[in-house]
Write a structure and sequence with these properties.
alpha+beta, 4 helices, Pept_S26A_signal_pept_1_CS, membrane, transmembrane, EC 3.4.21.89, LexA/Signal_pep-like_sf
Amino acid sequence: MVDVDPEQTPSSDEPTSDASDKASKKKKKGNFWKELPVLILVAFGLAIGIQIFLGRVYMIPSESMETTLHGCTDCYGDRVLVDKVTYRFTDPAPGDVIVFRGPPSWQNDFVTGEPGNPISEGLSWLGSLIGLPSANEEDFVKRVIAVGGQTVKCCDEQNRVTVDGKPLDEPYKHYDEGTPAEQESFEELKIPDGMLFVLGDNRNHSCDSRCQGQGGLNGLVPVSNVIGKARVIVLPPSRWGGVSDHNPQVVSMGAPGWQESVPMGVGIVAAWPLLLLGRRVRDRFRR
């Protein structure tokens, strides 16, 4: 007869392996629901931080930048990702498509009244995080044509805008069907330092530096008002792609071609933090 050690004999009170697995799964499931609110708060905080410091999605509400950017009352307006990092290290350059706060002299046709109650205000604020313009939105999107120290005028014999007396190369320029392919002329204007002269790509369907504030110096945009550079069209999916930043002065001014790739390179480097943060949040949820 073989003696059996009572300490090694399984007790009926001890859980089986199946029971242990079930308890472990139940504990993990409980931990997930406890961590979920924290994860949501962290993700929401990251979204706000990214929009404030790195980039934000804006909706294009008008046709002034067609066909580079689409926006109209009877179609799905483009949502564009605006890079807020690049201009912390450099100033806007000719050809950049920028988003900026309208100076006091500018009139925004899309401004409406403020929401009437706290709930509406809260929903409006949440909507702005995903690119829906708020009721008192006074931000504009246009293309930089000339910067401080340059002289701009329209037009030469071939109906082209000139900067410092040299015609611009503007392949992005658009005229609505049925309208004359001629630009509205404006007097020669010397741009003060720290200011920008901007135009819409839909050249005759845009109120910009030519007409805002009745034109002249009142139509210029302070560099300090610039929020960021439009980089990528993120919605709708059929419109995914980068936003052209062709420098219209490269050919006329004889600038080296490599300069056109510098802003894009800076933008790619600036985009890495956004990509890494997004991956970490996704990995956290999967766990």
